[in-house]
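Quick one, tokens below:
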């Protein structure tokens, strides 16, 4: 999920601040940070009680900014602090909060905030912004470094728009903070529709952690729960692979999973079967070497439909790109417990395939936390995993750990 955090600024808000806040909150942003730092403690407390109540009605996390006394008084669960304030925070005060955020402007600050007990970071400013005209943006390389070198969720701030979402996701950000874009927004409904549409749009970032399902003998309810936990852990693409279901059941289950995946701004891909993908409303199809040709699938599908193709050689990769594939699945790169007869390819072959095409590629086959580092420098844009997620007792935790390892090799 890549929902925006709304950082308030009542001075640039059009109309009544609290009425506008409720319009924004009704669309369920990731959180609201009440940033009104110019207020006195008393005035901030008064506003925080009202703003917090609005957020509470819609189930949106409410974050107090800077005012520690107010946060404790209203029993807020979350507070966001400048790093100097976090340094001074007493252990007893930290214990009052489930969530503590910190603003950071360098890698050293990020690491210090993590050591001081921060649970998330806001890094900026990333892009040029009118509110900091005299300061050059720190850029995407800065954001990538913070995401790669810390274990905390990182949110980008500064000059963020829906057009920047693919770059931010590719850099490893967990989300983004919006101030003026929402404070001055006359039509929140259109803003959030456009934001979610951009978040769902396929890009290289979509391949970072690609989950391929393995249902086995589970009930659909248990299977649904496992996919949901993988999404909560941060998977960026889901492929529904079902070899033993009848078509009508597969379509019905795919329709349900489309809704689940889209609630996390993650596309759903169907393995092998284009007709099921189209009828269920899935975002794309992945075609193996024995399936329908990429060229035929492209002819029969909408322009924005995602088509992935398996490639084990440079010739296959180049042909898939010519025929209209959006990405490649390349492997097996390691022995695979789910496909014991899969043809292995070497790291050198993987690198050669990746460098032979301009479309992104994901490695697949026996990949886990213990061997993923061997793929460093191969040119992949992500990894596709089955057992490394769905054979784990804690799927959500496994996804979090795997994604962190992927960032180390692709950022």
């Amino acid at each position: 999920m890549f929902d925006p955090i709304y950082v308030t600024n009542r001075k640039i808000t059009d109309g009544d601040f609290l009425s506008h806040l409720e319009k924004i909150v009704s669309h369920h942003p990731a959180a609201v940070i009440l940033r009104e730092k110019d207020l006195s403690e008393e005035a901030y407390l008064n506003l925080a009680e009202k703003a917090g109540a609005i957020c509470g009605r819609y189930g949106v996390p409410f974050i107090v900014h800077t005012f520690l006394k107010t946060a404790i008084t209203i029993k807020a669960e979350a507070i966001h602090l400048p790093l100097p304030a976090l340094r001074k925070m007493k252990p007893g005060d930290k214990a009052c909060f489930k969530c503590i955020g910190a603003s950071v402007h360098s890698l050293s600050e990020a690491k210090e905030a993590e050591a001081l007990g921060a649970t998330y970071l806001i890094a900026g400013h990333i892009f040029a912004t009118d509110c900091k005209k005299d300061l050059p943006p720190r850029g995407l390389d800065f954001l990538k470094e913070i995401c790669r070198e810390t274990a905390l969720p990182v949110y980008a701030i500064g000059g963020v728009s829906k057009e920047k979402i693919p770059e931010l996701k590719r850099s490893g950000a967990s989300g983004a903070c919006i101030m003026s874009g929402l404070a001055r927004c006359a039509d929140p409904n259109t803003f959030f529709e456009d934001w979610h549409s951009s978040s769902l749009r396929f890009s290289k970032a979509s391949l970072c952690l690609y989950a391929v399902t393995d249902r086995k003998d589970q009930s659909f309810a248990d299977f649904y729960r496992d996919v949901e936990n993988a999404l909560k852990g941060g998977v960026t693409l889901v492929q529904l692979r079902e070899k033993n279901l009848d078509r009508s059941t597969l379509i019905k289950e795919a329709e349900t999973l489309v809704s689940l995946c889209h609630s996390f701004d993650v596309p759903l891909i169907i393995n092998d079967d284009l007709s099921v993908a189209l009828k269920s409303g899935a975002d794309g199809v992945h075609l193996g070497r024995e399936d329908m040709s990429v060229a035929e699938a492209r002819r029969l599908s909408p322009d924005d439909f995602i088509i992935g193709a398996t490639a084990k050689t440079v010739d296959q990769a180049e042909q898939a790109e010519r025929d209209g594939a959006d990405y490649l699945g390349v492997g097996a790169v390691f022995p695979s417990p789910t496909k014991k007869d899969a043809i292995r390819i070497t790291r050198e072959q993987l690198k050669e395939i990746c460098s032979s095409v301009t479309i992104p590629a994901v490695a697949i086959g026996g990949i886990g936390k213990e061997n993923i580092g061997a793929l460093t420098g191969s040119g992949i844009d992500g990894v596709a995993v089955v057992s490394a997620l769905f054979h784990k007792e804690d799927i959500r935790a496994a996804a979090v750990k795997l994604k962190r390892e992927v960032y180390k090799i692709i950022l």
